[in-house]
Predict the 3D structure of the following.
Amino acid sequence: MNSRDLEEKSGHSEVRDKVSEPIILKVENLVVAFDTEEGRIRAADNVGFEVKKGKTLGIVGESGCGKSVTSLAIMRLLPKPAGVIESGKILFDGTDIASLDAGEMYRIRGNRISMIFQEPMTALNPVHRIGKQIGEVFQLHYPAMSQAEVREKTMELLRKVGIPDPEKRFGEYPHQISGGMRQRVMIAISLACKPDILIADEPTTALDVTIQAQILELMKQLQEEIGMTIIFITHDMGVIAEMCDDVAVMYAGKIIETAGVTELFQNPRHPYTKGLLSSIPRLETPRKARLNVIKGMVPSLYDLPEGCRFQNRCPSAQDICRTEPEMTSVGENHFASCYFSGQ
Ligand SMILES: Nc1ncnc2c1ncn2[C@@H]1O[C@H](COP(=O)(O)OP(=O)(O)OP(=O)(O)O)[C@@H](O)[C@H]1O
Ligand SMILES: [Mg+2]
């Protein structure tokens, strides 16, 4: 995809990249660790990024690089007891979420920050009817709301996310509806309280192309209506082009490059980002195919190389790459951690 295609597709331009918006979420030096039988690993290692209010930040990277772990840390939903926030800050509107107690987080989660999970079937409760699962969100955050009002609001949401025949769907169970409809139900649940931030973790990976396009369109529409901020997680650079204003590229637990979307596509600096961009699925490749153009494997978190984590796959690697490169400014609003990012 060339940059003109990208601009046409996403409505972005360099001018838009440069508009500065207030920062609603700032992640600083976040370290998420897991205690496993083979020892402690850092699934997110010194992760930092900023999210502009009302905009969409994409987090992109291959499977296992720490995208879901980072979003679960923001939601404070890391699997317990193995997963912990070891250090760092998650500043939401000035409050550090990483150090909130469970009660305070309870008020934020689902209300001010909500998440669409990677696998809707595991996130929905199979034994509860769809209407009840949406209604529960209202009951949780607005206990004074009457039953009639909860039902009315639930219906309104089902209509809003494009679920046909909401009266009928209200009383159905998750297994009775299609994958696309389940994802719409998940979106309805996550939007119930008009959150400030929506984290969408690969919300369309399991869906076929047409349904995927519809869901992405729906998310954009709802974002405009509510004015919410989105963190969009994907391994698909094509989806990044379509959905995002800014991008953070992750590799083996680290953010290795951040930039506005147009800048990143026009002027990628990290060899890993360049690799991802050259592997954008073309029309003739099946959409669900995983990125596999970059040769070699992501290193195991149990056996990381000294220095740059991409060195074993990198066409530009030199001796210096055995010491860790810092994130440095390589352009306006553009940072990369590579000794050769200037080239
Ligand atoms: N419950 C867990 N216990 C131990 N390690 C875990 C656990 N969950 C995740 N990890 C570690 O964290 C790493 C990052 O996982 P994560 O789910 O964030 O990847 P991802 O980028 O979301 O990948 P995908 O694109 O496949 O969803 C994994 O490779 C794994 O090593
Ligand atoms: Mg994931």
